[in-house]
């Protein structure tokens, strides 16, 4: 039988069967996790002669959506208490009357599971809705200035210029523009003086520093544009599994929009590892342990000295005066996964 020429495409399509379904976006990779122990030791020495009262505060990690603290074991020669302080931070406090001049040591052993934190609204296969999470009762605080992160007209102008130069319209686009600006223009460099305090003017002028300085600019510029942004601090772990000593702290940031919820950012790690620049806008890896959140902190019970710029190392007062004769050591050891 002969068919009109116009029917041939239909017949061929019918013979070929139904069209193949469109390729589905690749599912996001499973979140990585890391199970480990972390030991935190503070050794006080050479206390002033005649000291009548010594107060010691240590930050204590607590569980949240990105980490599970399975156990905290404290070894101390005097009674202590673990309290909940500002922004939900956990604080170990120890008070000693007539302490020995030779000092003493406090050791804290932590067992933790740290989970990779990725915002599902960002990435190759973004979710359609922001993740459900408990509201942050301190959201308005994360729009306010810090002592070393003022929100004066100059900072606001600089932040506006960054957003305008990127033609950023939404809050997410503005945060992305700030992140790109910080990673591109600030160098991870701990030489010289002034770095490590999270002083936004130092970082904007010197264009170098450590994680504290990177995130002072990121957080300050976000807040200057009306985007809540918060600061967290803890310790980094090397990517290689094993055990060893951790020499110093690491800090990072998050910002909030109604469309995305909280978005994790690590601008200093992105500057150190350019190949992971896209990853660290929207993710924190599992190689870290958070100890506290926020800056300009009042401890629990309240210290007599000034507010702490940030709280990661031991803080002590001898008769109400800051005491700095404290040696500290931090070590980690990877453990088999627990499934938490």
UniProtKB/TrEMBL annotation:
One of its GO terms (molecular function) is peptidase activity. Coiled coil: none annotated. Residues 1-22 form the signal peptide. Residues 203-269 form the Transglutaminase-like domain. Keywords: Hydrolase, Protease, Signal. The keyword Signal applies. PANTHER family: TRANSGLUTAMINASE DOMAIN PROTEIN, TRANSGLUTAMINASE-LIKE DOMAIN-CONTAINING PROTEIN. This is Transglutaminase-like enzyme, putative cysteine protease. It comes from Hymenobacter daecheongensis DSM 21074.
